[in-house]
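Feature request disguised as a bug: please show the residue count (116) next to HTH luxR-type domain-containing protein in the output. Example input:
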Amino acid sequence: MSNLVSRNFTNPQERFYTTDPAQNLKSFIEKGDLHFLSEFNGIFPNFISKVKSASSKLNAMDIKFCVLLKMGFSTKEIASVTKSTIRAVQSRKYRIRKRLGVPKDEDLNLFMVTFS
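Example output, currently without the count:
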């Protein structure tokens, strides 16, 4: 019995750390750990400042969505992480698109992934 306990619960954080920093970051985001922002800045040091400079109309939640899009999260995953509806995420993405001036024919997810 003690072997079972020590094997499964010795270090509950251990399963969230991998050798891939982006995967670690995704794990932090999915479990709601606020540590993800410092990790994100370590991986993409200039992204947030460039997004902010691209449009002064973006608020904190818009920037969080941009971070999630940069990490490759789908609309459904963003809805789950932010505890909102898919329709709310779609509306937020539309507002971000307008505020950043992303053309309608360009995919916002791809735009954010390639934005640097």
